[in-house]
Design a protein that fits this description.
Length: 85
């Protein structure tokens, strides 16, 4: 999912991710690497799992753009998706 956003033809995006208190340290490590590699990737680490609703709201708090599109962790979008929108 992250790679499909970073590979977009349209360059003016931000990816806001909420880690919903994942117990897997590998998840935090990977998210940290991505956010350090691209300033358009913003991460919030929730202390307690709130499931999809709370996680989505936490990610939304990071957003600064006028439009929002939602993705799940296993979604993949084509390279032209944001350009077409």
């Amino acid at each position: 999912a992250i790679d499909s956003v970073t590979e977009q033809l349209y360059p003016h995006w931000e990816l806001c991710i909420a880690d919903d208190a994942s117990p897997d340290e590998e998840v935090r490590r990977v998210l940290k690497l991505y956010s350090e590699k691209d300033a358009r990737i913003k991460i919030v680490y929730r202390e307690k799992s709130g499931h999809i609703s709370a996680a989505t709201n936490s990610a939304l708090e990071l957003c600064t753009g006028p439009w929002v599109a939602f993705m799940d962790h296993d979604d993949v979008i084509p390279k032209h998706a944001l350009y077409m929108l």
